[in-house]
Specification:
5 helices
């Protein structure tokens, strides 16, 4: 018997992941943070901050439906969003046009891989509903 992640755990861990990324994006006007991580500065920072706000809202939704109705529908939407995000980030990085430090590139490839994994996990929750 193989161990399974519960749907509730997947949704709640992703909510925490969303809040972590949201905090980073909300701090996007802090240039020194992006320079330290070897990442390109978001210009204007306003768009990155708006994405951070949207991720806070998504985290609240994911946390709220982790135990109840709507979980499969939310998981389906999140799976699609994560898959598209992973693809966009991977294409952007593979194009070689990004002017980022090596450690920034490693960080972004790690994020692309994490997004892909989250897409797979959410797709499973969407298909099977998972066990709470």
């Amino acid at each position: 018997m193989r161990p399974r992640l519960s749907a509730r755990l997947v949704m709640r861990l992703d909510a925490v992941s969303d809040l972590t990324l949201a905090a980073f994006l909300l701090a996007s006007s802090w240039d020194a943070l992006f320079e330290f991580l070897g990442l390109p500065l978001p210009e204007p920072a306003f768009y990155a901050q708006l994405l951070g706000v949207a991720l806070v809202a998504l985290a609240i939704v994911e946390w709220s439906v982790a135990d109840g109705p709507g979980r499969r529908e939310v998981a389906r939407g999140v799976a699609l969003g994560r898959a598209l995000g992973a693809m966009v980030l991977a294409v952007w990085l593979a194009s070689g046009r990004a002017e980022i430090d090596f450690h920034g590139e490693v960080l972004l490839w790690s994020i692309a891989g994490t997004l892909a994994l989250e897409a797979v996990l959410h797709a499973a929750v969407s298909r099977h509903g998972g066990r709470s």
